[in-house]
Specification:
The complex is a heterodimer of chains A (428) and B (313). Chain A is α/β, with parallel strands linked by helices and 428 residues long. Helix content of chain A is 29%, strand content 22%. The longest helix of chain A has 17 residues. The N terminus of chain B is likely disordered. The chains are: A alpha/beta (428), B alpha/beta (313). Chains A and B meet through helix 5 of A and helix 5 of B.
């Protein structure tokens, strides 16, 4: 690889508190050699022709902590290759994949398979999760220790929640002993039974069963109560309601844990479901506008640590059904950054806070050396034209599945180039 | 009477998916038209040919007796070719989706599809995929517009108006599309609506529709002109909503002592089928001075004829 020189960029790297106009040098091994304002046209070797980014932004490659890939079992929805391409077009260079595949990622041999597939077919960094319980049935724990030795950095049942409190306490004990991170999807299944959208006037009007916000809150409160005694690494995958933000705010000083929010819940509300739009059947569900506003404020105040895409590719056939029969989830990895930038453009949240929630914060939770632009690290980054207007069109999506929650939405800010380990793998 | 003026004004909707979509003007057009069909239905020659040459498909994914026969009869009396499909044992069981079924039927060029489906919003989905008119004969727990229209017609014929009446809707509101459609329609027409149900059978935030909420039946029935009872939909209940039918009857079954709290000339309505001895005392159900349940069925045909005619034009 040749050395690469970029100048005149707005570099934003929250991990290194870097927010300045400058340049970037990538060495022959694809590592960051130099970065910042000291890299400029005046101190580069004269024979080199640097690329002038003309004020475009450089962000660390995004670390998306909640991504569903269809491999193995649902390759027709998304495979590692299509996921990589979709991710790269959105500036995402590292993903944490959920274990809800067929078979479920719950033992070391399937992890071996996954790592091989990831290595052979993926262009981005794949961090697969294993499930907390065998077959995500919520009864028997998986082998955290052996799985961790195989490189699993986080455990979650993905779309499922540990309902049994005793089992949850045992999982926390095991996670604590072995230093493993566990990530809970917070939903009391009895309270949410048959539920499809937020409980309330819209559900009553559409005649759909509701998922009350208390279903989320009760699991969060239970887990945080357990966490008081069992101090393990614990992360709440996604929160959706203002009540959850309140609890997290109250408890953050007493117990150590982190939480995330889906970009869908930050950008949309239950009214967007309109006339039974199945692409907006999500888990957790979209809630009221007041909830959305509190989530945005929570992210702004640092109560919520990270933003995830909750990328869940579903093929057309799984969505062209009545609302109750349709699959849950939306494709979103390629619009994650642009949709997040909406919160910056409309003045809700500072750019640095957004980028931190997409890069250094997830990396810190996962304890991986990603999501930063430190010297000597892999040059995983994206170049972004932060003001460029564009419209989300299903047919332009790169992901194998086209179930975007924001069809026809006008966005501002687009990734123009994405690099992984110094290699340019995406270019507009 | 007003039917003459109704012809000058067109209905605002292409499909009849729910009362929510209708304006007061739309409702008046339908009710006025229905009035004219009542006498035709009572006469010797019940057949007119306004829909001759038109094809009507009744697509019923849920078992139904009165709604299906009512729509079938309505279509036939208007001269349409009516085909009733009971989808319980057809392609849908072989894995065909609603959209595929819709496309198949659409290729046969029907003019009207009447659909009953267990999923809320099924008729909305269907209407997006076919070229013909879609009439909703009940979708999940969302809407059952023709039932609400026939209820309104029944009330108007007995009480001469709806404006200013006090109407109680009692029972399993949560699972009831009839309740939802009636809430929209009766409040639109100026009635004061009381909902009476145990909290477990009351939809969330339903008070935002402009109705009063009661858990005590006697309070809910106080001074009401109309008492509309709903069927307890045990088949839609997946977990424990109630302790027992006998306790439900004790607290929410319509009995003479509870009815005493309503106005002396209060009328009893029920969309059927009834669970006698669970939501209604059997003597009250059959009391010809108080119960208009049979009249509801009769006017149901007239209302459906009106809907078929108006939406087909």
């Amino acid at each position: 690889m040749k050395k690469q020189y970029f100048i005149n960029a707005n570099i934003l790297d929250p991990h290194n508190s870097l927010n300045e106009n400058g340049g970037l040098i990538i060495d022959e091994l694809g590592k960051i050699e130099a970065i910042g304002k000291k890299v400029n046209v005046n101190n580069l070797p004269s024979r080199e022709k640097p690329i002038d980014l003309k004020g475009k932004y450089i962000f660390p490659g995004i670390v998306d902590m909640r991504v569903f890939v269809g491999e193995p079992g649902f390759e027709y929805k998304e495979n590692f290759r299509t996921l990589s391409n979709a991710a790269l077009s959105g500036g995402v260079t590292s993903v944490v994949t959920m274990p809800n595949t067929d078979p479920i990622i719950d033992n070391v041999s399937i992890v071996d398979f996954l790592k091989r597939r990831g290595r052979d077919k993926s262009k981005i960094n794949i961090f697969p999760c294993a499930s907390m319980t065998q077959n995500t049935e919520g009864t028997n724990m998986t082998e955290f220790g052996l799985l961790a030795k195989k490189g699993i950095i986080a455990f979650t049942d993905g779309v499922r929640t540990i309902q049994n409190t005793r089992l949850m306490s045992r999982i926390m004990n095991a996670a604590k002993d072995l230093g493993c991170l566990i990530m809970q999807h917070a939903e009391d299944f009895h309270l949410s039974e048959n539920g499809m959208i937020n409980s309330g006037i819209i559900a009553s009007k559409l005649g759909l069963s509701g998922i009350p916000d208390v279903a989320e809150r009760i699991i969060i409160e239970r887990d945080l109560t357990l966490l008081e005694k069992i101090k393990c690494r614990y992360h709440i995958s996604q929160i959706s309601s203002s009540k959850s933000v309140d609890i997290i705010k109250q408890r953050k000083d007493e117990v150590k844990f982190t939480s995330g929010v889906s970009i869908n819940n930050l950008s949309l509300n239950e009214n967007d479901i309109g006339d039974f739009k199945t692409f907006l059947k999500l888990s957790p569900p979209l809630r009221k506008e007041e909830d959305r506003e509190v989530l945005v404020q929570g992210l702004k105040d640092g109560v919520i640590d990270i933003i995830v895409s909750d990328h869940k590719p579903e093929d057309e056939e799984s969505k062209r059904l009545t609302f109750s029969q349709a699959a849950t989830g939306a494709s979103g990895i390629e619009t994650l950054l642009s949709l997040s930038l909406e919160l910056y453009h409309n003045g809700s949240i500072k750019l640095e806070t957004i980028i931190r929630a997409l890069t250094s914060n997830p990396a810190k939770i996962l304890n991986i050396n990603k999501g930063n632009l430190s010297i000597g690290n892999d040059a995983d980054f994206c170049i972004v034209d932060i003001d460029k207007p564009w419209v989300v069109k299903k047919e332009n999506l790169i992901s194998k599945s086209k179930n975007t929650s924001i069809e026809d939405k006008k966005l501002q800010g687009k990734v123009t180039n994405t690099f992984v380990k110094g290699q340019e793998l995406f270019k507009v | 009477m007003a039917s003459k003026t109704s012809k000058a004004v067109k209905i605002s909707q292409k499909h009849l998916l729910g009362i929510q979509d209708l304006s007061i003007n739309d409702v008046n057009i339908i009710l006025n038209e229905a009035q004219t069909f009542i006498s035709i239905n009572r006469s010797k020659n019940k057949k007119i040919d306004v829909l001759s040459g038109k094809t009507q498909i009744n697509l019923f994914f849920e078992p139904s007796t009165r709604t299906q026969s009512s729509f079938e009869l309505a279509g036939k009396r208007l001269g349409a070719d009516v085909m009733s499909m009971n989808m319980g044992n057809s392609a849908i069981k072989k894995g065909e989706t609603l959209i595929d079924t819709a496309m198949t039927l659409n290729a046969m060029h029907p003019d009207i599809i009447v659909i009953r489906h267990q999923d809320s919003g099924a008729c909305n989905l269907l209407s997006q995929k076919v070229n013909c008119v879609v009439l909703n004969a009940g979708d999940g727990r969302r809407e059952h517009p023709t039932q609400a229209l026939l209820d309104a017609l029944t009330i108007i014929n007995r009480k001469d108006k709806i404006q200013g009446l006090k109407i109680a809707i009692c029972g399993d509101i949560l699972h009831s599309r009839v309740a939802r459609s009636n809430i929209y329609l009766l409040t639109m027409l100026g009635a004061e609506v009381n909902l009476v149900a145990p909290t477990n059978l009351m939809p969330k935030e339903i008070e935002k529709f402009g109705v009063n909420i009661f858990t005590d039946m006697k309070k809910g029935l106080k001074d009401c002109d109309i008492v509309m009872m709903l069927r307890l939909q045990n088949e839609r209940m997946t977990s424990s909503f109630l302790s027992s039918n006998r306790e439900y009857y004790e607290y929410y079954g319509l009995t003479p002592d509870k009815l005493d709290h309503a106005k002396p000339d209060a009328l009893i309505m029920h969309p059927g089928p009834m669970n006698r001895g669970i939501e209604i005392d059997t003597r009250l159900a059959d009391d010809i001075n108080k119960s208009v349940i049979k009249e509801q069925v009769e006017l149901g045909v007239a209302v459906r004829m009106a809907c078929l005619k108006i939406f087909c034009e």
